[in-house]
Amino acid sequence: MNKVCAIFGGSRGIGRSVAQLLAQKGYRLAIIARNLEVAKAAAGDLGGDHLAFRCDVAKEHDVQNTFEEMEKNLGRVNFLVNAAGINRDSLLVRTKTEDMISQLHTNLLGSMLTCKAALRTMIQQQGGSIVNVGSITGLKGNSGQTVYCASKGGLVGFSRALAKEVARKKIRVNVVAPGFIHTDMTKDLNEEHLKKNIPLQRFGEPVEVAHAVVFLLESSYITGHVLVVDGGLQLVM
Ligand code: NDP
């Protein structure tokens, strides 16, 4: 099987680290994000024959177009990583409806749309592997992140149900649930304070999550699983 992987959110942070590991393993990659220039730079840095695509995962039309373009230019996509995500942290009583919608649309609806689009090819070729990036907060809940937690908790339910739905087609669907990881998303947090609550006493690095994503992507007998990568945070949450 040729190894073509679409990485939504592959231009920065965790998705970019996944891209770096997969490039070393000989995959052909589609690096997908809203900012095409940043995605192009990330694809270029990988060396080799990787391509960048502009897409807002929250928009069905964008997702459909991107899959058409990927198929034309890279061939059939048989691996999918959903790492695109945003947070708009605030107490629920202060959360604007537009911020609820943008988080749900990007983090949950977006992954539904990309999975649906990817399945067309995966079902035809009777095989494929999907990893969705959730969050430990989607499993445990976190004050100040109700909507983000809902989007990530929903992603677990969605992924487990989809895993059941497509297992007979030899398609696997898994989730990686990170804790605090050093990326743009966490750069404004008070790390000194927060890390005291993490059993391993530090934030994780994107590559530490990327290894878990690649492990699940390439596994053969694991589906519907949620792999937590959080320095032990779930033990104390
Ligand atoms: P970053 O902010 O570093 O990167 C986010 C990536 O997603 C970028 O490539 C960004 O590119 C892309 N993206 C965001 N919105 C969209 C959109 N609507 N359409 C397409 N691409 C989009 O985040 P992280 O690497 O930290 O996060 C990756 C995933 O891991 C997210 O789902 C996040 O929720 C999750 N996560 C992160 C944790 C952390 O501590 N960092 C902890 C737990 C979970 P662009 O802006 O150009 O679109």
Which ligands, by name, code or SMILES, are bound? Answer: NADPH dihydro-nicotinamide-adenine-dinucleotide phosphate
Helix content: 40-55%
Overall body shape: globular
Output the number of helix runs. Answer: 9
Terminal-residue CA separation: 41 Å
Poorly predicted ranges (pLDDT <50, ≥5 residues)? none
Class derived from helix and strand content? alpha/beta
Catalytic activity: a (3R)-hydroxyacyl-[ACP] + NADP(+) = a 3-oxoacyl-[ACP] + NADPH + H(+); a quinone + NADPH + H(+) = a quinol + NADP(+)
Keywords: Fatty acid biosynthesis, Fatty acid metabolism, Lipid biosynthesis, Lipid metabolism, Mitochondrion, NAD, NADP, Oxidoreductase
Protein name: 3-oxoacyl-[acyl-carrier-protein] reductase
GO molecular function: 3-oxoacyl-[acyl-carrier-protein] reductase (NADPH) activity; NADPH dehydrogenase (quinone) activity; quinone binding
Structure write-up:
This protein is α/β, with parallel strands linked by helices. It has 9 helices and 7 strands. It has helices at about 15-25, 35-45, 60-75, 95-125, 135-140, 145-165, 190-195, 205-220, 235, and strands at about 5-10, 30-35, 50-55, 80, 130-135, 170-180, 225-230. A 7-stranded parallel sheet has the order 3-2-1-4-5-6-7, with helices on both faces. Strand 2 (about 30-35), helix 2 (about 35-45) and strand 3 (about 50-55) form a beta-alpha-beta unit. Helix 1 packs across helix 8 (about 205-220), helix 3 (about 60-75) runs parallel beside helix 4 and helix 4 runs parallel beside helix 6. It is globular and about 45 Å long. The N and C termini lie far apart (about 40 Å). The model has no long low-confidence stretch (mean pLDDT about 100). The structure holds NADPH dihydro-nicotinamide-adenine-dinucleotide phosphate. NADPH dihydro-nicotinamide-adenine-dinucleotide phosphate binds near residues 11, 13 and 34. NADPH dihydro-nicotinamide-adenine-dinucleotide phosphate (NDP) binds near residues 12 and 135.
